[in-house]
Write a structure and sequence with these properties.
InterPro entries: Cell_wall_metabolism_enzyme, Dup_hybrid_motif, M23ase_b-sheet_dom. This protein is of the alpha+beta class. Among the domains are: 113-175; 192-307, Glucose Permease (Domain IIA) (Distorted Sandwich), CATH 2.70.70. It contains 2 helices and 13 strands. It has helices at 36-82, 105-175; strands at residues 192-194, 197-199, 209-211, 214-217, 223-225, 230-238, 243-249, 254-259, 261-264, 271-272, 277-281, 291-298, 301-303. The strands form 3 sheets. Strands 1, 4, 6, 7, 8, 10, 12 and 13 form an 8-stranded antiparallel β-sheet that branches. Strands 5-11-9 form a 3-stranded antiparallel β-sheet, with no helix packed on it. The chain has a two-stranded antiparallel sheet with strand order 2-3. The radius of gyration is 76 Å and the shape is rod-shaped.
Length: 309
Amino acid sequence: MNTPVRGRRRSDTRTSPLSLISRPTGEPGGRRRAEAPAAAHSVARRAGIAAATAGMLAVIAIPVAHAGDAEELVRTDLVSNNSAVSVQAAKDADLRFDRPWAASQAAQEKAKVAAASAEKKKADDAAAKKAAADKKAAADQKAAADKKAKAQAAAKKKAAAIAAAKKADAAKAKTAGFATGSLKAPIPHMKQTSGFGYRLNPITGAAGELHTGIDYAMGCGTPVKASDGGKVVEAGFQVGGGGNRIVVQHRGGLKTTYNHLQSIGVSLGQKVAQGERIGELGTTGNSTGCHLHFEVVKNGQTVDPAGWL
């Protein structure tokens, strides 16, 4: 066992990290300083050891910092768990998460039902549209048929009226201007007031005057008709006393005259049929009242009308 020497620092093989820190220049050491080269080497060595020591201290401090961070995390977690924090997404945010590959069977069935419903609605709409179109077409067709039938009925009626008019015209043309060979009464319900022959003049009172026709008394305005078919050869006012006068020429040299008329309904040269209205009974000319003076002339001579009616 070695006994330490008093008065001198014992040399130790172990070197303390603190002993490696260099002292300021000029500071006395426990031992005698080495020469300059050895001193420089010693300073570099001490610097390297100091850097290594600092690195070791940093490594040792890391778990402590982590432990502090862990404690801070624990405290933060506790605060988070004990605090009511409201998290709300933006109103306009689109939070859809489409995952077709993860769709459930119920969602697929729902999609199938919706597709089938849409197809059915489409088919129903098409059927309703077609039914409406068919109904409209049927209504239009019926309206067209009714219109056609109405037009045909009107055309048929018009054709019948034209045919009837032509028939009447043909009948009139057949008799107009031609005598039937017999004369008919020119007015209905003839009431004779003066016959054919000599008589006293009812106006002047003179005797021996020949009355060349027959007078039939009726109300003024009574229709006067042609006694037979023929041609109007005279129609106007007669100055000699006959007043408004019509003369119709018949065949075989026969004429009939209609005198004292209130009005004349035919014109000179017009052809008339037997029974056709030619004027109205009146009291014009030398007349004492409403009556018709009717004459029959055969070959230019007046004859008694009674033998012809």
